[in-house]
Amino acid sequence: YDSKRSIAEYTEEIENPGFIRVHRRYLVNMRHIVRLEDNKIVFDTDHCHAEISRRNKGSFDAHFSAFLKTF
Questions:
Q1: In what order do the strands lie in the sheet with 40-43?
Q2: How far apart are CA 30 and CA 41, in angstroms?
Q3: Going along 5-56, which residue ranges are E strands?
Q4: pLDDT, tens digit, for every residue of 26-39?
Q5: Of 69, 68, 6, 1, nearest to 35 (Cα)?
Q6: For the chain, which terminal residue's Cβ has fewer other Cβ atoms within 10 angstroms, N or C?
Q7: Given this model, what pLDDT does residue 1 score?
């Protein structure tokens, strides 16, 4: 979706541990991740995907592992 607000503003507003910023363009709801392909996240809706930046890869891996342990 297009928005006039920045991702940083949404990141600050959403205090849900199920969301993580994986790229300067993407804030991801981890509940909708179907699979990971190298540095790409594939979602459960219509073959949508998002890239994980090299900078955020380590943080994402740690948060996603912790998120999966909650199930």
A1: 33-37, 40-43, 49-51
A2: 10
A3: 19-23, 26-29, 33-37, 40-43, 49-51
A4: 999 999 999 999 89
A5: 68
A6: N
A7: 66
pLDDT < 50: residue spans in the chain: none
| CA gap 4, 56 in Å, rounded | 23
C-alpha 21: how far from chain center: 5
Segments in the chain forming alpha helices (H): 7-13, 54-68
Cα 54 vs. chain centroid, distance in angstroms? Answer: 13
pLDDT at 19: 94
Measure CA 69 to chain center: 17
